[in-house]
Amino acid sequence: MSPISIIIPCFNGAATLARALESCLAQRDATHIFVVDDGSSDASASITRGHAMRDSRVRLLQMVSNGGAARARNWAALHAPTPLLAFLDADDEYLPGALAAAHEHMEQHPHEAAIRLDVDYVGFPERLTKHPDFEKYAAVLSNTVPSSLVIRRSAFLALGGFPMDDFFRRHGGEDGALSWTLREIFGQRRFTSGKQVRMHYHAGIHAERFLNIQMGFVEADPATTAETVRCSQAFLDAAIASVKQVRALDLAQPDH
Question: Which part of the chain is the Glycosyltransferase 2-like domain (predicted)?
């Protein structure tokens, strides 16, 4: 069985969590499924416990208070005992065989840090999906959103996990910062032969905001854009320094 841990941050995600979990349980290559209840006030924890009773791969982690998705993902990554991590948002779902394909790719390419799954965007408004540039911007999202990411745990920790800046928590963009950093330091490829993870639309979803701005339906706030770039650059610089430090360390020689 494949050494992959799935990490699901969940804040009041009871309406969709069962669907996400069922899609995880169908992945034979997942040995651990961590749901991080990020201070929910709904039935998210109860739903997770119910699935845990059915399948021992499911484990509930509970945050004392809401700390944001980045913090929840990073905390679960510290608990994960496996060399590969996969991230799934509570309102998304894996399609059959998604992690099997990712595991096979990582086995065949031992020097690659990560692989991205291709995303199927379901229920998005037609003004977005019928736009002539939808496929172009959908590809950018597929290289960015957490639910598309399967990464070596060692590389994830070396990068520092998802950035936890207060700015990103308020405005989003931590997934973009991680994607940029991953691409710059280790590189990242994405499957393009078929959809492997499904993102369901709901009002206010970050993906819609990104598409609205890129397609010209909404004008980006210059101050927010500048701060996003600044925080992302700071995260990239810190990650580069961290990886350089690790690479410069001498490995301890075993005693004989």
Answer: 5-129
Integer-rounded Cα radius of gyration of the chain: 18
pLDDT in tens, 115-141: 999 999 999 999 999 999 999 999 999
Does residue 99 belong to any structural domain of this protein?
A: yes
Cβ-proximal residues to 24 (8 Å cutoff; 6+ apart), any chain:
6, 8, 30, 33, 58, 88, 94
Q: What percent of the chain has pLDDT over 90?
A: 95
CATH number for the domain that contains residue 52: 3.90.550.10
Segments forming the whole domain that contains residue 148: 4-245
Q: Give the Cα separation of 61 and 38 in Å (integer).
A: 9
Q: How many domains does the chain have?
A: 1
**Mean pLDDT along residues 67-83:** 97
